[in-house]
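in:
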């Protein structure tokens, strides 16, 4: 159950992504997985390197496409636990179409976004998660666009598991990843993971001052979607914890009549030639 490998991450010292890596490794061990039972698919960006730093199956994909690949892996082998990961630019800019459709599809994949509100790998440009007024190389006079409210977006798109965390809250983040893995359906976990090199606004201290833990809000009920939406709007999305979970809705796989008990990757997919020709003839 050791999810550590001997690859040394080349993230900047202090990058929030280190804690996310540790949380995934701990959560995977805590839910009783072995490295052979876990696949991590990542996109492009500093955070995309994470699939190479964990002892499991790993796939470092292309920009914004971690979710299509992760969904393909899950469909081919339903017995694998599949985690997709990437940054806010990867998942909420170029990959946003995939994010929304994976959410509404409710396929059994856990998506962990390392949200640092900037493009780190390309040396500091404004991302869809940067606040209005944010000054970077790409917006020297301050961004004139407002930040995307991703948690609200996920609720609107029909997400069945929406959570948010802060990379230094290792215990809470680990527990949320465990819950996400155990959730039967798509789970989105957005993690505030500071970029210490290029984002000098949304720092560790800034998050400590501005984040509210949902566990400190009296009467908060993560099964009440209306309450989830109102709380997000009141706190401008700056909350951590399990925001919303719907355990009633079936996952994508469970909604398919007769979905194979045997993973497709191990199933006998041989087709009788006569049957195949008959099927093709119907399309001619
Ligand atoms: Fe982390 Fe930012 Fe360095 Fe990338 S540039 S490794 S996001 S601190």
């Amino acid at each position: 159950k050791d999810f550590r490998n001997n690859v040394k991450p080349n993230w900047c010292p202090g990058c929030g992504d280190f804690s996310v890596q540790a949380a995934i490794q701990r959560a995977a061990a805590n839910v009783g997985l072995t490295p052979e039972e876990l696949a991590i698919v990542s996109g492009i960006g500093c955070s995309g390197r994470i699939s190479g730093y964990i002892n499991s199956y790993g796939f470092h994909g292309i920009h914004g496409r971690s979710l299509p690949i992760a969904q393909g892996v899950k469909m081919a082998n339903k017995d694998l636990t599949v985690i997709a990961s990437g940054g806010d630019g990867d998942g909420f800019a170029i990959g946003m179409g995939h994010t929304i459709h994976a959410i509404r599809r409710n396929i059994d994949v856990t998506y962990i976004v390392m949200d640092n509100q900037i493009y780190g790998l390309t040396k500091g440009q404004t991302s869809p998660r940067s606040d209005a007024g944010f000054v970077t190389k790409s917006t020297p006079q301050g961004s004139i666009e407002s930040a995307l409210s991703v948690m609200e977006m996920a609720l609107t798109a029909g997400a069945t598991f929406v959570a948010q965390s802060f990379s230094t809250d290792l215990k809470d983040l680990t527990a949320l990843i465990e819950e996400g893995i155990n959730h039967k359906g798509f789970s989105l976990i957005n993690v505030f993971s500071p970029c210490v090199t290029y984002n000098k606004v949304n720092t560790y201290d800034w998050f400590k001052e501005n984040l509210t833990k949902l566990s400190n809000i009296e009467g908060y009920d993560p099964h009440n979607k209306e309450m989830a939406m109102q709380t997000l709007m009141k706190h401008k999305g700056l909350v951590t914890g399990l925001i919303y979970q719907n355990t009633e809705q079936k996952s994508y796989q469970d909604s398919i009549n007769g979905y194979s008990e045997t993973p497709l990757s191990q199933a006998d997919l041989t087709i009788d030639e006569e049957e195949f020709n008959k099927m093709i003839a119907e399309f001619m």
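note: The longest strand covers residues 81-87.
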